[in-house]
Every structure is written in structure tokens, then in C-alpha cells.
Amino acid sequence: MVKARKYVVKKYFEGVPKRDDYEIVEYELPNLQNGEILTKTEWISVDPYQRAYNSFNKIPYDQFAFQVAIVEDSRNPSYPIGTRIVTHKGWCDYAILNPNEPQIPLNMIYKLPNLKDLSPSLGIGAVGMPGATAYFGLLEICKPKVGETVVVTGAAGAVGSIVGQIAKIKGCRVIGFAGSDDKVGWLEKELGFDKAINYKTADIDKTLKEAAPEGIDCYFDNVGGEISSIIISQMNAKGRVAVCGSISSYNEVSSNVVKAPILQPSIVFKELTIQGFLVKSFSKHWPEAFAQLVEWIKSGKLITREDITEGFDKIYDAFIGMLAGKNFGKAIVKM
């Protein structure tokens, strides 16, 4: 028998998630059945969608998340001991899985992509769901062209930092918004953004006009809210917007109303295309994105950065820190 631990959400979040919204449950795993594998978690992902999806689940529920795990015991010949896999099993240290069961997008089980000696942790970051989100949201929805101006919010985060770099690879001019001067410096000096703006201190409307005097062609929206309305108002005719998330509103208490300037005049008169998307819709094509992302990383065209917290007991702290924007790049937990 293996003793396992997991985080169970026992309350719906009100505002910022609280520690007592969770309960850590210890339990014994049963013996393996045919087709099953026993996995030990090595890396756990903390992401904004874990906050956003809270209200969609029936309480109590196991906290979901992507993780990289290693097979410690197996009764499945396709997954021998020592195989590394990516799952959506969540904030737990051990799990029993059956890869033969029908695969559902986001709840899939797949072998860690060929990372060519890169850290396995990238399997939940740049070569995982966040990398695929950046890749497909930018290239399939925004469809940037050489010489165009691309703006991305949440630019120093797991998705935004990759979006901006892919846009540069594709020959675009890139402007990113982040929440500190340190992040601004990182985006400009290390990741090659043409301009980065601290949204907490800048006059957003004025500074953006100065940074993009000829307007904006593509916008990758991670945050929503007033800043997105300002960016969309400065877009060029036939501009394209990929709406990935709205982290600015995730921690708002339901009684509060998040206000932002009206968008319809800009959308209509500039004939903008605005499309929301879920990366799971592209799940069949993730392997092609992963192969390209690994190639860019290995060649030095794409820089990855991980914000690592250590320890099962620190997962909540990493989650709250990420929601507060403390991370540079991908926030992960090393088990």
C-alpha cells in the first residue's frame, strides 16, 4: 500500500483563494489492476485557470493541475517503470492512472515529449499546456504577419512571455505589459521585446500610443479589464484579438462589477476579429507545437524561465504568488 496526499477544494473561492478553502487529505492507494500505473509526481503546475474554473466544479473536488510524474509501478506494458508522463491529476504526490481509458481533453495522459535533454519540468511549461496556448493562440487566431505590431498582456507570465518571443521569431514588433519595472527590464533586455510597459505606473493610453504610433495589428489578451479596452481602441482596421483569459477579474468577489470602456465602436468601425479560445480545442495538434517549441529553445530563439517553489506543502503559496503576479515566466512546484 502506498500512502498518498492530495489537496481537496472544500469551499468556493471568494476573492483570493484562502488556505482554509483547501484540505490536505492523506489516504492509501489500492493495489494496481491490469492496465493501471502508479505514478510519483515530480513537478506540479500552478496556473490562472485553476482559479477561473473553481466555480464550474461541484464542491468538494480534487484540485486539478498539470503535472509531470514518473511511473513507479506498472501493469501496463506501454508505460513501463521509469516512464515520465504528463497528466492533469493535480496537486497530489502519488496517483493510480489507467492510460487505456478514453482520453478527454485536459484530462489526457501522455508521455513526456522528447525534450532533447531539456528539464522535464518544461513538460508543464513551455513544452506543455502554456506553450501550446501561446503557440496556437498567436499563430492560429492572431495570424501575425512580418512587420506587424503585436501587443500581449501578462507578458512576463508563462504564456505571455512565449507569445512575445514567438511574435519576434515571426518578424513582428512586440509590445508587452507587465506589473513591475523588473519584469519590464527582463522583457526588453533578455526576451527581446521592442517595448515593455509597467501597467501599474504608466499612463496606458498615452504610453501605448507612443510605443505604437501606427497602431496595433494583433493583441493577445491574458487579462481583460480596462487595459484590454484601451489596447483594442488603438487597433488598426482588420486587427485580430486572441482572448486567452481575464486574470484581472478572477479574484473579484461576485458582488463587485468589473468596469471597462465599451468595446463595440472599435470592433464595428475597425472590423476587428475577436476570438476566445481554449487550448484543449487544439489538443490533437499539441505534438507539432511541442516539436517546434523544443527546436526554438534548443536553438536559443526562445528563452524559458521558471519560477520554482519546492515542496508539497508550498503548492498553495506558489498558487497565490502566481495569482499576485510574483512569478517571472512559468510558476511551478518541485516535489
- Helix content, binned percent: 10-25%
Outline: globular
Main pleated sheet: 7 strands, mixed
Give the uncertain stretches in residue-range form.
none
Strand/helix succession = EEEHEEEEEHEHEHEHEHEHEHEHE
Q: Helical element count?
A: 9
The rounded distance between the terminal residues' Cα atoms is 20 Å
Structural class: alpha/beta
Protein described:
By secondary structure, this protein is of the alpha/beta class. It contains nine helices and 16 strands. The protein has helices spanning 49-52, 129-142, 160-169, 181-189, 204-211, 225-233, 264-269, 286-299, 315-323; strands spanning 2-9, 22-29, 37-45, 61-62, 67-74, 84-87, 94-97, 110-111, 149-152, 173-178, 195-198, 216-221, 235-243, 273-276, 306-310, 330-334. Strands 3, 5, 6, 7, 8, 15 and 16 form a seven-stranded mixed beta sheet that branches. The protein has a six-stranded parallel beta sheet with strand order 11-10-9-12-13-14, sandwiched between helices. Strands 2-1-4 form a three-stranded antiparallel beta sheet, with no helix packed on it. Strand 10 (173-178), helix 4 and strand 11 (195-198) form a beta-alpha-beta unit. Helix 2 (129-142) crosses helix 3 and helix 2 packs across helix 8. The radius of gyration is 20 Å and the shape is globular. The two termini are 20 Å apart. The mean pLDDT is 95.
